[in-house]
């Protein structure tokens, strides 16, 4: 099993290029199930979650060709059953349910691993499918859907779930007529999906607002599309520059997509300059980092996927800060690992109270999930000594060439295989 070794204490300098967004690429790739025609998707990151998605598309009968960051997908679908062996690898795999239902009026899709109906919002997907005319049942770990007559409808999501918004948009795209989806997610990935669906022949209005209107069609055609840059990777490298006291330019990004993060970094005392498609950050080492509280919110609020990384930064701030998690329960598994660096922080309900200190010490730590892993890497960049991080396969799910990018910025980081 691979491990990452980091020698802390080196300022990051230089330019880092941001990869395509994983969270935008996944629904776009699953949307290719809506047509038999050829689709070309560019700027797709090289990640384990992308590999799992392509394997799932091939299982359904799609022909997949990959050249660098461009993927060609074509062909007919041979199955409407998504088995647990494939779905369990990635929670986003449940996004196959909408396209399968829309194409064939039936689907049998395994619930993702660790899924709990009513705790995390898979139930919002199922409520939406029911309102679109599907008979929905949960049997032996599978969602079983059947409908001879899907129909356009007015949907109100109980919570602006990103996945549910995407699934409803994809399903409605192949339902002839006007479907209105209210209280939807605003995330840039939703806008990107709407852009791709419109290229397939769907008329979509309102993406990025509270209400999305989908004018579906009976048949869709192929299209070419370029995935937007990854805003979570953007935010992670901005925080990496900040925590290391570096001087870096984050390039090929969309500054507007991380404006909340930029605002918090400025409040913490960093100098941040935005350009058209790049962000320059300086400050940190030698200057006191101001403690800044954050509460995670749906977009455009502070993203839950950057909560752990921000917590790592606040561990070396000059004073007390509070990080409140408002989206998911039980997303503080990284707290115990950050404590191993000597960080002073404690959990209190839905919040973590952090008593910042000037120095962290290296330690052996273990990754519990993707974003927690990023936080441990950030802490390792400033911890005195050599930090050994295990279970780093989580990082390969969402960060393309992480060690190589950090090495180019001057970090002393490498991976070993055991």
> Treating each run of at least 4 consecutive H or I residues as one helix, how many helices?
13
What number is the mean pLDDT? 95
Which runs of at least 5 residues are low in confidence (pLDDT < 50)?
Answer: 114-118
As for the CATH topology of the largest domain, it is UDP-n-acetylglucosamine1-carboxyvinyl-transferase, Chain
How much beta, percentage-wise? 25-35%
Give the second-level CATH assignment, the architecture of the largest domain: Alpha-beta prism
Q: Kindly state the percentage of residues in helix.
A: 25-40%
- Strand arrangement within the widest β-sheet reads 22-23-1-24
Number of E strands = 24
CATH level 1 name of the largest domain: Alpha Beta
CATH superfamily of the largest domain: Enolpyruvate transferase domain
Secondary-structure-based class equals alpha/beta
Throw out a few tags for this protein.
2 domains; four-stranded mixed sheet; UDP-n-acetylglucosamine1-carboxyvinyl-transferase, Chain; single chain; alpha/beta; 418 residues
Structural account:
The protein is an alpha/beta fold and 418 residues long. It is 30% helix and 25% strand. It has 2 domains: 3-19 and 229-416, Enolpyruvate transferase domain (UDP-n-acetylglucosamine1-carboxyvinyl-transferase, Chain, Alpha-beta prism), CATH 3.65.10; 22-226, Enolpyruvate transferase domain (UDP-n-acetylglucosamine1-carboxyvinyl-transferase, Chain). It is built from 13 helices and 24 strands. It is elongated, with a radius of gyration of 22 Å.
């Amino acid at each position: 099993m691979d491990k990452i070794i980091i020698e802390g204490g080196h300022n990051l300098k230089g330019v880092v290029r941001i990869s395509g967004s994983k969270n935008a690429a996944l629904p776009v790739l699953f949307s290719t199930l809506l047509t038999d025609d050829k689709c070309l998707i560019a700027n797709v990151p090289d990640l384990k979650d992308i590999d799992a998605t392509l394997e799932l598309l091939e299982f359904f009968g799609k022909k997949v060709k990959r050249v660098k960051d461009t993927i060609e997908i074509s062909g007919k679908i041979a199955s409407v059953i998504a088995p647990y062996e494939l779905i369990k690898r990635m929670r986003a795999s449940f996004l196959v349910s909408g396209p399968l239902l829309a194409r064939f009026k039936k689907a049998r899709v395994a619930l993702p691993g660790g899924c709990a109906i009513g705790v995390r919002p898979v139930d919002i997907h199922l409520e939406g499918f029911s309102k679109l005319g599907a008979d929905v049942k949960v049997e032996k770990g599978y969602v079983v859907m059947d409908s001879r007559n899907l129909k356009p409808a007015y949907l109100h999501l109980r919570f602006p779930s990103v996945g549910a918004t995407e699934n409803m948009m994809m399903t409605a795209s192949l339902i002839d007529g006007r479907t209105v989806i209210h209280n939807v997610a605003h995330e840039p990935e939703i806008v990107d999906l709407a852009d791709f669906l419109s290229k397939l022949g769907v008329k979509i209005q309102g993406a990025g607002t509270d209400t999305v209107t989908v004018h579906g069609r009976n048949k869709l055609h192929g299209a070419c599309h370029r995935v937007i840059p990854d805003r979570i990777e953007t935010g992670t490298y901005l925080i990496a520059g900040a925590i290391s006291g570096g001087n870096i330019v984050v390039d090929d990004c969309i500054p507007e997509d991380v404006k909340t993060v930029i605002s918090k970094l400025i409040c913490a005392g960093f100098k941040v300059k935005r350009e058209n498609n790049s962000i320059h950050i300086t400050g940190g080492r030698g200057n006191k980092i101001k403690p800044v509280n954050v509460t995670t919110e749906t977009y455009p609020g502070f993203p839950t996927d950057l909560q752990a990384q921000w917590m790592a930064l606040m561990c070396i701030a000059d004073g007390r800060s509070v990080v409140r998690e408002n989206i998911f329960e039980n997303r503080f598994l990284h707290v115990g690992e950050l404590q191993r660096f000597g960080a002073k922080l404690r959990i209190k309900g839905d919040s973590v109270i952090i008593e910042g200190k000037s120095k962290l010490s290296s330690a052996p730590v273990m990754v519990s999930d993707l974003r927690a892993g990023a936080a441990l890497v950030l802490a390792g960049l400033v911890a005195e000594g050599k930090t050994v991080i295990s279970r780093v396969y989580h990082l390969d799910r969402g960060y393309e060439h992480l060690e190589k990018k950090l090495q180019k910025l001057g970090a002393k980081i490498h991976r070993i295989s055991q």
